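Model it.
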Amino acid sequence: MNESLPQGGRYRWFICALLFFATTINYIDRQILGLLAPVLQKEIGWSEMEYGYIVTAFQGSYALGLLFFGWFIDRFGTKIGYTVSVAWWSVAAMLHALVTTPFGFGAARAGLGLSESGNFPAAIKTVAEWFPKKERALATGIFNSGANIGAVLAPAVVPWLTITYGWQEAFIVTGALGFFWIILWMFFYERPENTKRLYPAELRYIQQDPPELSTERTPWLGLLKYRQTWAFIAGKFLTDPIWWFYLYWLPKFLNKEYGLTITTLGLPLIAIYTMTSFGSIGGGWLSSFLIKRGMAVNRSRKMVMLICALFVTPIVFASQVTELWIAVLLIGLAAAAHQGWSANIFTTASDIFPKKAVGSVVGLGGMAGAVGGMLFAPATGYILELTGSYLPLFIISGSAYLVALGIMTLLTGKAKPIVL
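Modeled.
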């Protein structure tokens, strides 16, 4: 029997806020290269293909890191795993200030990719520990919106830092943010059953779902025998590269097509990523709302993912319009739909797999998404050098989600929870 909403107990949402701020910092550190790309391209002199390789260095190491951190977080827990990840990526972000060659930036991005990969396995596992299933998509949507807030704050702050102090200082200041977060995380985070700040009623509310039958850890290779694992892998492989494309090529697209510079990019990017915040939280809220109204968990996730996939499709026209703000609206709608999709696809992992395996499953799927991005980045550079047009890239972006949802549906069926 489900517990009613606990009165006076909202500590789980404070934990969600910590996840939100970690994800915000994660994306500030991740996006700064895309923002500074037009400046660095002139100062350092890399080509479109070399920039593609720099992006690929991040994504390749991110893929390997996800595999490691998924296991590491399941093995040592979210408190230690998250701390190691954030400390590592903060140092790696600051080291960008020391390099001056395309190869150096590739090496720095590789270090950042390895360490930043711990964020989502740790955050999804934390949500699985701290929220009942009916609230997990909403909690995921909220913390995942930190990616969008980070993408909003970066164009608001990084150009000012760069113009005022220099691009090296921009990397140092933004990289240092993670150390402040670690202090809060170490002081406030414990598993729910070990948290003295938690009201007993809220603990019962968090643990209202039926007990999991699986209690043993499963090696990630053992997870590959399940079709549900491959469904998650396929969904991430096909759709994560689209988000990478937005992060790394959107400033370059706006610069090429509309002549925007580092001082004029801010407002369009802020508008786009503000829309994505609404998409992330809205997608998570809608799924949770449908479950509370009686819809089956799997059906609610798939319904919202279908809606999001349909909202992405108009982006195919983004490179054909001549008005800047129409292009911004089309891209913002697609990016918002991606984040709504992301809030739900992440939650499918904790719906189907026991908590002790969630980090590993998210790591496997995230690795697949990073590999997809690693393949898509040089392909993007090649397509742009060959055609000079963003149209083929927007066609791919507009169709990937429907294809991914079709494959996931075929593989998962009714998506019943797995007993490992």
